């Protein structure tokens, strides 16, 4: 093939181009001429004729005009005739632009990779979080009239009860007297049945619905039928409806399961129906035993026994405030209720998501900031790149290219970057969601149906693409005012002028967004540090807990638990062990208190927490004794009734007094309670330290501890936890503990053995995951800000090569040159930090509900964020500064 490059160089001699500029033009035109040569050969021309035809492209203005326009490098002679003809194939011209844009991006792999990854990270993070918020918080519940489904609960400020469930009589009053609901139903969630006859005994999770429940949700069976009205007229559960998950996983998806007999709670029950998947509201429910209202169990007939969940469907035209007024009036007509009782009607979906709304929106805000930083970063890269190509564009314009043609090419290159960034963002977003779904114990509801939301994806791509294309087109406006003679003359540009100001402004914006992110993370880190350093009131390390459910409500229960304690105590490595109905990381049972030494208003009884324990409970869990004594083996059913209170109860109910020896009654509530008689008065024999029964960030409430052997109703015998204090690793004793329990009762399910330290850790899982996600986004923001600062400072120093060469030649030290460069970085950081602090002051107040013992204006967090940004910015500037200090004055002057 002929060498066309020498011919092209001769045609460009008069332009006096630099070697780099000439080499770029020669490469583009030679490729085109080679294509023309090969085309002529394929059409039957000889090599000589094909060479002549190709060279005519350099000598014939009309032909040269069309061909050079394809590569965006027209000559002035060709430009004279550009108005005479228009391209006949605009689509082909577009693909030429694409091919040229790809070649230009391939020539600068560093720029291309950084821009694509930056866009991809911004798009992926934002899309993933938008999808998460959409599916968890915004997506309607998949039930009939889901927009009219509401959860119903009450509160009483005077009794210190922010959220109170309903009792059986409360629900009966709602059902008979309300004028606001089409359907209203009650249910008992989160209890267990024992399943036997299918291998090793196991526990299954239950939710018991009342008759209107399935009609309320509009649920139809997947297989078989639901409960018939007649079945709600008797208490026994001889028929059973099971969940889709239980049918699929435990019953093998048997299509002939209807009519199959299973053994639950010591009774044979016939499966009559399988529900469809209900992962939104009840993802962990295995079976659905019916809940009868009339007749009902005795504990459901007591007004003070409030443990039932209630939900209803509002009538068309009825608003939530109207329904709240209606139900509050019903409840206030009951003499036993506090006068300030207030019923709340909350959308069922909002009640479902609970306390994850604020963490999710906080994480979404962090992802949005990442998208902004990513767009700003790419914009700065595009602007800096356009400035570096100023000489190239000047040559194109001086040779006759139209401004619109230059703009078209710049936009095409930006479009290619945007498309690649969107593809990478799609992959990152999908990967993030898949990762989140696989995280164990992630405290988020509705995770089974999380997917990459198309609306979120399109919205994010539209924003990122618009920003990219906009900043790809913007430089063409400045080229309309370009002084061609000045632009063609080799020179150095300082970080001044409109372009320099635009680049600096973008980097300031990056730093400001990063400050907001870093301050938010600082607040969350400080708050989390305080949470994990809270004294829980016990020692969770080397402590094991196993949940045991029995059907003992009589003397058999005493024998079973005594046998469990005796057998387990002989396991090597066991230091202490005890029984309790407390579940670490979750609240203890609610109680009300009656005092012997003061008047008691039945409508305003103080509330607290109540726990049944064995005599060695406090030593086992590691709680200190403040005053009095702990329980002993003698505190049994034959001994006088006693109670131990915690420090908070002593502080609230006997401030400045010694409560030892005083007597109180404890109304212990919950399903399974066997009597409604007034509680016995118990002597206070000890004061124990405050145990945080719930999560670590929940303050200790007034609490009482009662000997389980002194429960005259014996309902605590049915469900207890065994706590084992080990000399070393508690979980290493799990198999031995299980074996000893099976020695006492071979059919006893023992499938829930846990490390208490893990349970305590899980109680703050929402904080941990929020911190992890926001922290990850902040780290990405810092990285992008560092890239932005590095890019701008590197660009500025490269344009000042001649200046630095002169300074060094005149005696400036290298340290002095480094300080010149770092001054620009410090200036950008200062302005960005000031703007970021102002933004953080406005935004971080929304994080207050996520903070624990930390103010949204925490000085430490703000100071640490600014210091970190300063270190990152200065660090990103060190390499350009070092390069500037190494400039050789002679080489710098020669290169200019």
What order do the helices and strands come in, and which of them pair?
Blueprint: H1 5-11, H2 19-42, H3 47-59, H4 61-70, H5 76-79, H6 90-107, H7 109-138, E1 149-156, E2 161-164, H8 168-177, E3 181-196, E4 202-209, H9 213-217, E5 223-224, E6 239-242, H10 244-249, E7 261-264, E8 267-274, E9 287-288, E10 309-314, H11 320-332, E11 342-347, H12 348-353, H13 357-388, H14 390-398, H15 403-438, H16 454-479, H17 484-488, H18 497-532, E12 543-549, H19 555-569, E13 574-580, E14 589-595, E15 607-613, H20 617-621, E16 625-628, E17 642-646, H21 647-653, E18 663-668, E19 681-688, E20 703-707, E21 719-726, H22 734-744, E22 753-755, H23 756-762, H24 765-799, H25 801-809, H26 814-843, H27 859-885, H28 889-895
Parallel strand pairs: 6-8, 15-20, 17-19
Antiparallel strand pairs: 1-2, 1-10, 1-11, 3-4, 3-7, 3-10, 5-8, 6-9, 7-8, 12-21, 12-22, 13-21, 14-15, 14-18, 16-19, 17-20, 18-19
Helix pairs in contact: 2-3, 3-4, 6-15, 7-13, 7-15, 7-16, 13-16, 13-18, 13-24, 15-16, 18-24, 18-26, 18-27, 19-22, 24-27, 25-28, 26-27
Return Rg in Å: 38 Å
How many separate helices?
A: 28
Main pleated-sheet profile: 11 strands, mixed
Helix content: 40-55%
- How many strands in all? 22
- Overall structural class, as computed from helix and strand content, comes to alpha+beta
Shape: elongated
Contiguous runs where pLDDT drops below 50 for at least 5 residues: 61-92, 483-496
The first-to-last residue Cα distance is: 37 Å
Q: What brief labels describe this structure?
A:
single chain, 896 residues, alpha+beta, 11-stranded mixed beta sheet, 22 strands, 49% helix
